[in-house]
Amino acid sequence: MIKPDDDHEIVSADRALEIAEGYGLDLVEVAPNAKPPVCKIIDFGKFMYEKKKKEKEAKKNQHTIQVKELRFRPQTDDHDLEFKTRHAREFLEGGDKVKATVQFRGRDMLYTEQGKELLANLAEELDDVSTIESRPTMEGRRMIMILSPSKG
Question: Do 80 and 122 reside in the same domain of the chain?
Answer without folding.
Answer: yes
